[in-house]
Design brief:
It is a single chain. This protein is α/β, with parallel strands linked by helices. It folds into two domains: 144 residues, no CATH class; 100 residues, no CATH class. 39% of the residues lie in helices and 17% in strands. A four-stranded mixed sheet has the order 1-8-4-7, sandwiched between helices. Strands 9, 10, 13 and 14 form a four-stranded parallel sheet that branches. The radius of gyration is 24 Å and the shape is globular.
Length: 327
């Protein structure tokens, strides 16, 4: 009787990783452009919902630029892409993926680098959300971080990235059995998978996020192309006709540079003529560049409103503000 070796079908993130690292997980062709919108100037911008977000920020563009300039595509690893057969909802009831979706799980930076280098076709790993990850969002997040434990022309996994897994497991536990606390088995598994973690760290995360109701959503990273198109969008709206529209800027600049920019525009030669101004209405467009800014946004908006109201009364001007999505 002959001995036959059969490759087992992985059913957890760590099993998928083991097969990928051992070279036995199958690959399929990918059209990389499917994950991006192409703008008229030739710039490619990641589509909304194109990735399984496993980090606090979507893309580190400085890293993408640095690696792209090396022009060493042979050093770039294959991407890992998750296929969703059915609609998937997060623990808070929001839609996570639609039936038929494919999302980049590991390799968001790789995809950006490939597009910059003109690599539109590649062979990548395709993971079935139900079959390979047990239909759990926490396992999808875990998968992306496990594959980033070492740096190979990619941005490595950080401690805060693993926190996303912990908080997601808590949300799933709460939904399934009414108690969000991680089990000893879940904690043990994380400690084995991420050797830089300590039990005390996980305990602290659980205490901090016990009432979160779901994992903390990572911040949206806005590209310069997107920001300028957004500015043009507001400029085309009837309600902002006659406004001086400032370039989109970080929330952190709301008090200092934003106000100084307003003054410079207000008193510019083309607006201040013979002792009077032609335009006295201003639109500020803000975005969050850090998770901290997003968390403090409600308080910041309140401070903005109070100061800008005083400026309107004192200088007889009008100030409107728009805030771009940070999730």
């Amino acid at each position: 009787m002959k001995n036959m070796t059969q490759t087992l079908i992985p059913s957890t993130a760590i099993e998928v990783v083991e097969q990928i690292e051992s070279g036995i997980f199958p690959t399929k062709p990918t059209n990389n452009a499917d994950f991006f919108n192409k703008y008229p100037d030739g710039t490619y911008v990641l589509k909304d919902g194109a990735i399984v977000q496993v980090r606090e920020e979507q893309v580190d563009f400085e890293f993408v630029e640095r690696i792209s300039n090396k022009r060493t595509p042979k050093h770039i690893k294959k991407k890992v892409i998750v296929y969703f057969k059915n609609d998937v909802y997060d623990a808070d009831g929001t839609i996570f993926a639609r039936s038929g979706d494919v999302k980049i799980n590991d390799g968001t930076h790789t995809a950006h680098i490939q597009m910059r280098l003109g690599i539109f076709q590649s062979d990548d790993y395709y993971v079935d959300f139900e079959k390979h990850l047990g239909g759990r969002i926490s396992e999808a997040i875990n998968l992306g971080n496990l594959l980033n434990r070492t740096d190979f022309e990619k941005r490595g996994c950080k401690k805060d990235d693993v926190k996303q897994i912990v908080v997601q497991i808590m949300a799933e536990n709460e939904k399934e059995n009414g108690d969000g606390k991680l089990s000893k088995k879940q904690i043990s598994s994380l400690l084995k998978q991420y050797l830089f973690l300590k039990p005390e760290t996980i305990a602290q995360w659980q205490s901090y996020d016990k009432n979160s109701g779901g994992r903390r959503k990572p911040r949206k990273v806005w590209t310069e192309v997107e920001l300028q198109r957004t500015k043009q969008h507001f400029a085309n709206l009837e309600r902002y006709e006659g406004f001086i529209i400032l370039d989109p800027r970080e929330v952190a600049s709301w008090r200092q540079t934003t106000i100084s920019t307003l003054v410079n525009f207000h008193l510019a030669d083309d607006n201040y003529i013979d002792g009077s101004t032609t335009k006295d209405k201003f639109l500020f467009i803000f975005y969050c560049s850090t998770q901290k800014q997003a968390e403090d946004l409600v308080k910041t908006k309140d401070k903005m409103a109070k100061l800008y109201k005083k400026m309107e009364v004192r200088y007889n001007i009008k100030i409107e503000s728009e805030f771009l999505n940070h999730k």
